[in-house]
């Protein structure tokens, strides 16, 4: 996979995570009684964004090193 494909996949994951956060916020505003469950979902989406951020910081060489057989 070339660098542009990797970047596209990362952008897709970020967009998906942001959409999940926006959806959770919207549902919490519509139905406050479900806010705790939605907050947990929001937390999971934010954790995903943090993991993506860590992979981006590693760069392609760092990710490839993790995937290499040990």
UniProtKB/TrEMBL annotation:
This is Uncharacterized protein. It comes from Bradyrhizobium erythrophlei. It comes from the Bacteria.
């Amino acid at each position: 996979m070339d660098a542009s494909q990797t970047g596209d996949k990362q952008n897709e994951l970020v967009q998906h995570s942001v959409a999940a956060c926006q959806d959770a916020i919207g549902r919490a505003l519509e139905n406050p009684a479900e806010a705790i469950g939605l907050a947990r979902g929001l937390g999971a989406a934010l954790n995903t964004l943090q993991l993506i951020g860590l992979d981006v910081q590693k760069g392609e060489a760092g990710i490839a090193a993790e995937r290499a057989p040990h």
